[in-house]
Fold this sequence. Notes:
Blueprint: H1 21-29, H2 33-45, H3 49-70, E1 71-72, E2 80-81, H4 84-93, H5 101-115, H6 125-134, H7 138-154, H8 158-175, H9 181-186, H10 188-195, H11 199-216, H12 221-234, H13 243-251, H14 255-271
Antiparallel strand pairs: 1-2
Helix pairs in contact: 2-3, 3-5, 3-6, 4-5, 6-7, 7-8, 7-10, 10-11, 11-13, 11-14
Amino acid sequence: MPRKDSPGKIDSGSTGQNVLTDVSAQFWASNDYWEFAERVQEAAKHGDGASQYYLGLALNTCDFLYGYYFREQRSGTRPRIRTLDEAQQLTATRQGSAYTPDDVRDIQSRCQRIMNTTPPPFGIASEWMAAAADSGYPLALANKAMSKVLQAHNDPAPEKASAARSEARALVVEALQSRDAEVILTLASPVAFLAGDEPGNALKRHWTWVMAATLREPNDASLAEWKKQHCAVAGPCHPDDTMLDVIHRVMGNDFAEIERGARELNEKIDAGTIDESDF
């Protein structure tokens, strides 16, 4: 729930669980997260899970990316805001950066007003994400599943680790009721960890879920962003590469097996027959 200095009280209702695409489309198309936040804030306060999630995602994106490129903190000096030229130069000097100078300009456009306004004008990203999970919003549940997986991995107490894994599996099953491609993509990492397979099998499981999301909605905006991040870190990729090209390059001779597994996974998701034994 929001802190006392957050902009109002969040209703515990779940009025926005049934529609994934509308607010999502607004978020991915937005060139100014201040304007986006103004549009969805009231719905978020009244319990709309989609609005809560994407408001949290917008704020988290600004906290991380604007802070990374535009905020400079040197020992013994006051923080300063880099110029656009300075921030764009970082794309060439920071290894593994997924962002181009044009991307950095877009980050400034989307986030500058929010990040230079105090106190935080639309609340705190983590609190909106927690509210979205409480509302049962599928993408928030998928992210919470990953948090539980990491908790299980890092907890030295076997009983606590087992409880966290069980909670993660239940969250995966609940999130999959949406049958949404972005949810399936988001779940690729937690299900790979949950399986407890050898690294090679875990890798196949991860890419099977990525393939399932790709087959379900190849033009989804979240897939385009995911591909950009992957290619920056693990690339290189050709500018015209599709997600299938990327998967084929990574999986090589295992591509046909991955595709077959992805189609079977999508059939189970659509039929509502997937259960914890599948991961």
